[in-house]
Task: inverse folding
C-alpha cells in the first residue's frame, strides 16, 4: 500500500490491518514522552486547501510523534493564487522530494490525480463530497474499542449524506466489515443512488435510530452547499437534532459519534454531546493513533 | 505550578523563582548552539487568536530551544470559523494530548476557562484587557538586571492603562515586589478603580515621570477601542509622547521600557527609543529566556 | 561571506564555489534519508512578506534537511499590520538571536537594509524588481549540469525584463561567468539602460532565440505592475509565447527554463513546458541543493 486515497478501494483485511497497527500507536500516545524515531528524516507535507484545525493538527501531531519533518501549506499562501495549476504546484513539490503529501481539497478526486503524477505517498485528508478515509478509520477504531467488533452492528448515519465525505467513507468501511448502515436525513440531503452502496434509507430519524448500536451524526456544513437544502437550521434541528428523546429509540448502550466540528443545538443536543454515551473526544484521540498507523504503514513499513 | 494565567494569583516567591530560573536560560541563549534537550518529545501548541509576531515568535523560539515540538494555530485557519465554540476546539486539542497550550485571545478570562476544561498546562499570552504575565515577568527580569533589585523603585507607567493587559500584569508584579508605581495618561484612559491595585494616579505626565527609576511606555493600540479615547494621535503625542524634555524629569539614570510594537512619534520619540537609556530590545531578548524558564517550570520541573 | 544579498556583488570564484558546494547536497537529496546534522541547533527565520509556495518551501526543506530550526513569518500575521516599521520588526527578531533571516519583500533593497541593522546572516529571497540570487544560482547549477559549463553559452532571456528580479540576478551571474545573454520582450518591458549590464537587446523573440543554448522564459506577473505594459495576455502570447515554432530557431539541443510558477499558454506552451528539452522541474530540485549549500556556507562553513 503506497497511498491512502479512499476506503472504497480497500478490502476488509487491509482495513483491519490498519486498525490493528493503530493499537501500538495508541499505547505510545499514553506514555509521558509520546515520541518515537520511526520516521526520522522523512518529509511530510500537509497541504490543506480548505480550512481545518482538527484534521491538520491531528496529522501534524502524528507526524511529529513519529519524528518526521512536517511542512504546512495553506491555500492562501500558495502559488495557486498566482494562477498556477494544482498539478504544476504538485510537480514542483514533488521535485523537492517529499516522502508524503497529505491533501485536503474541495474538488473530489484531487488526491487520485496527485497520486498519478507524484512519486511520493498521497493521503486523502478529505476531497470534496467524495471520501475522508482517515476519519472512517478512526471512527471504526473507536467503534471496535467500544463494541469489541465491527460486524453485526446497527449503525444510524444522520444528516447531509449527499454532501458528506465522512458519510461516504464510513458507509464503505462499515459495509465492508459487515455492519448494517441506515442513513437518514431530509429527502433533499439523501442522494438518490445511495442504496447502491448497500445501505438502507429512511427520511424518519426515529426509524434510523431504532435499536441502533451506533448513532453517528454528521455536521450540517453551512460552508458547503447544504445550506440550500433545508429552510433553516431551526427547522432542521426540529426533526433531526439528536436529543434525549430521539436517542431513546436506540439500544440502551448505544454509542454516539460525531466527526466534528459540531453545531450544538443543530444536529446534536448539548446533553447528548457531553453525555456518557458520546465518544466524540475519544474519536479525536484515536485519530492521532490511526494517522500514526497510516503514516507508518505507508512510509515506514519496510524499515521495521 | 501547573498554569501561568496571570501575575495576580502569584506571590512574590513564585515570581522571584521564575526570574532566578531565567538566568540559566539567558546563559544558554548566549552560547553558539542555543539548544538543550530539556523538553524533548513534549508538545506545545501556540494558539494565537489575535495577530502577533513578537510574542508568538518568542514562545516558539523558547519551545524549540528546549527541544519541544511546536504547533501553531492562527485564528483564520481554525475551526472557530466553522462555528465551533472555543471550548469545543479546546477539548478537541486536549484529546490530542498536548503538554502545553499557549493562548492569546481577545476575550479576558479565556486562559482561565481553558485551564478548567483542559488537562494540559495553559500559559496566558495575553487575554483581552486583563493580563499578559510573561510580558510583566520579562519586564521585571530586565529591571532587575538593570537596577539590581525590584523593590523600592519608582516606576512611571504611561499610556492607555484601561485597555492594557501589559499595564495590569506589570502593576500586579511591581507592587508585589515592593516598587512604587504611578500610572499616567489621559483621564479617559485611566480606569476609575485602578487605585485599588495599589498605584498612584496622575493625569500629568511630568508628575508621573518625576524622579522615576523606570519609565514604561504603553502602546497606543489603534486595533483596540482606545482610538475612541482621545481626539487623535497628534493630540496624544503632544502631551504624552516620551521625548527628551519629558524624560528630563526622571532620574538621570532612568531606564526606558516599551512592550512593543512601538508607534514612533506617538507614545515615544525616536531619540528616546533608540537612545542609551532604552532597554526595549533587551526586553525582547530577555523574553525568550523568561519564557524558556516558564516552560521549564511548568513542564519539566519534575524531571530535572 | 556572511550574507547573500545579490549576485551583483559576488565574483566568479564565489559563484563557482557555491555551485561546487551544492554538488554534495544534491547527493544527500538522493539518499533515502535526506537529512544531515550540519546546522543542528541553529535558527533560521523565513520572513516572506509576499506570497510564495515554491521558494519558501524550498528554503524550509533545505533548512530541515540540514537540521536547523525553521520559523515562518508571513506578512498577514506580522507586527507590520500593527504599524511597526520593518526595521523595528527586524531589530526585535534580532533580539531573539536567530542565526539567519531569509527575506522576501516587495521593496527593493530591503535585504541590504536588514544586513546593516541585524547581526545574523541575511539571505535575499527576492526583493522588489531587484535581485533573487538563489534563483540565479539554481539556474546556473542546472545549466552547468546540462551543458557542462557556464561560459560561451548563448542565453535568451524573454519576458518582462523590467519587473523581473530573476532576470536581473541571472544577467549578473551569466555575464560574470562568460555567457552571452540576449534579452527580449515587448519594448515596454525592456528597461532603457539594461544594455549597461552587458546584454544584447531585441524586441524580436526569434532573434533572441536564434542559435540559443538556453531559452529562459520569465513569468508574466499579473500581481505586479506588468499588467499595464501590454494590451492583454492573448496579445502577449501571440508574439512571445515559447512554442514549437519559436523554439525551432534555437539550437537543436537547446534547454528550456522557467523560474515558475508558469502561466501555461501565456509565456510558455504546454508542449514545450512538458517536453524533453524543459528542465523546469530539475530547476526546482536543484533549488533545494543550492539553498542547502548557501545555508551551509553562510552558517556552517567554519565548523566543518
Result:
Amino acid at each position: 500500500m503506497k497511498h491512502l486515497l479512499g476506503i472504497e478501494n480497500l478490502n476488509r483485511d487491509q482495513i483491519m490491518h490498519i486498525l490493528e497497527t493503530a493499537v501500538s500507536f495508541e499505547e505510545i500516545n499514553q506514555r509521558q514522552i509520546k515520541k518515537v524515531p520511526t520516521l526520522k528524516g522523512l518529509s511530510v507535507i500537509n497541504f490543506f486547501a480548505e480550512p481545518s484545525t482538527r484534521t491538520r493538527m491531528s496529522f501534524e501531531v502524528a507526524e511529529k510523534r513519529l519524528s518526521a519533518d512536517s511542512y504546512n501549506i495553506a491555500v492562501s499562501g500558495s502559488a495557486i493564487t498566482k494562477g498556477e495549476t494544482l498539478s504544476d504546484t504538485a510537480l514542483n513539490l514533488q521535485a523537492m522530494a517529499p516522502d508524503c503529501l497529505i491533501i485536503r481539497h474541495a474538488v473530489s478526486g484531487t488526491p487520485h490525480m496527485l497520486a498519478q503524477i507524484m512519486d511520493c505517498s498521497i493521503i486523502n485528508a478529505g476531497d470534496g463530497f467524495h471520501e475522508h478515509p482517515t476519519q472512517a478509520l478512526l471512527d471504526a477504531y473507536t467503534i471496535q474499542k467500544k463494541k469489541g467488533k465491527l460486524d453485526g452492528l446497527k449503525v444510524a448515519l444522520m444528516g447531509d449524506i449527499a454532501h458528506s465525505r465522512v458519510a461516504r467513507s464510513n458507509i464503505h468501511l462499515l459495509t465492508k466489515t459487515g455492519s448494517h448502515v441506515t442513513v437518514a436525513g431530509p429527502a433533499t440531503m439523501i442522494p438518490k443512488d445511495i442504496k447502491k452502496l448497500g445501505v438502507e434509507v429512511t427520511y424518519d430519524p426515529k426509524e434510523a435510530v431504532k435499536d441502533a448500536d451506533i448513532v453517528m451524526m454528521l455536521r450540517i456544513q453551512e460552508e458547503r452547499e447544504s445550506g440550500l437544502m433545508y429552510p433553516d437550521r431551526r427547522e432542521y434541528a426540529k426533526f433531526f437534532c439528536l436529543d434525549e428523546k430521539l436517542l431513546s429509540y436506540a439500544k440502551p448502550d448505544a454509542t454516539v459519534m460525531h466527526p466534528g466540528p459540531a453545531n450544538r443545538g443543530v444536529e446534536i443536543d448539548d446533553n447528548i454531546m457531553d453525555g456518557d454515551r458520546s465518544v466524540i473526544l475519544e474519536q479525536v484521540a484515536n485519530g492521532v493513533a490511526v494517522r500514526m498507523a497510516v503514516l507508518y504503514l505507508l512510509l515506514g513499513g519496510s524499515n521495521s
User: Anything to note?
Assistant: The mean pLDDT of chain C is 93. Chain C touches chain A through 30 residues (CB under 8 Å). The domain at 12-131+284-303 of chain C is CATH 3.40.50.1370 (Rossmann fold). The longest strand of chain C covers residues 121-127.
